[in-house]
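Throughout this chapter, every protein is written as a compact record of paired, labelled lines. An example of such a record is reproduced below:
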Amino acid sequence: MLAPLLVASFSLSPSSLTAIRSSAPALAPGCLHTTRTSVHMLAKKAKASSKKGKPRAPTKISLKGFGTGVPKINGEVGVLLSDPAYDALREWLVGEGANLARVGLADFNGLRGVIAMVEMKEGDEIISIPARCAVDLGVQAEDPIPAALRLLAALQADDGEREAYWQLLPPPDSADLSTPDFFSEKELQMLQWPPLVVEVLRR
């Protein structure tokens, strides 16, 4: 399991960063793979309509997103995000050999996502990031503690190479962590939905 890079990037205050570094256990450092991994997304080919016997028009890819038009969430068009922290992360990744030229980070009515910057065709590489840039969190499991310890160990062992990435992680009190997994017991009870409370406590 690899820690997310661009898709889940947030801000971490210097004081939070120092606190995490000082509390991290002395475990093995993170992943040092040197192979290049790529994510390929292929545009869907038109499928023949069984009713009319005619093929449907091919799906067009907008200059600003995938599908037949500008990507929207709840009716909102994506707006490119401009932030020095994002720029620093992009600069580091590109310097390591990542291909990010086809996409950008955008805000969709308060939700952050990826937006296409160029027209793409079937088989095009949309984004690629060298595996050595990721943090190896081990095998995915229900218990998040081993993965958290590996993340802290990688942070402690890092010599500043991933500083742009660490600076975008959310602090403990971030609104980006406002899922039931991070609720206090009192907040869980306020949900008034016992099955969810049981599931969260089980994890």
Summary: The first helix runs from residue 14 to 23. Strands lie at 36-40, 72-73, 76-77, 79-80, 103-108, 111-116, 125-130.
